[in-house]
Input
Amino acid sequence: MIGHCEKVVNFQEEKENIEGVQDLSLELFIVSFCGSLESLPCWLQRSKTLQYLVIDSCESLEVLPEWLPNLKSLEKLEIIGCPQLSERCRQDSGPDWPK
Output
């Protein structure tokens, strides 16, 4: 869980560090009350076990990453208190719904 990090805008990740992550064993990831956050950490895409992703009160997070559909084990995505992201993920009509 990453929470209450109001000043975090993104996760500055070095390409070399990401490439070193082969398989991330993670079933649940929660990011909450990070009002300035604009993107999810890209190392999440390395998880082959992530089942549940919660995004809560991250008002600046406006779009889901393009790699999200690659998370084959993801069973549930919960978006709470993110008005712009919620609108983009509206069932059947939001541009991010297919993700």
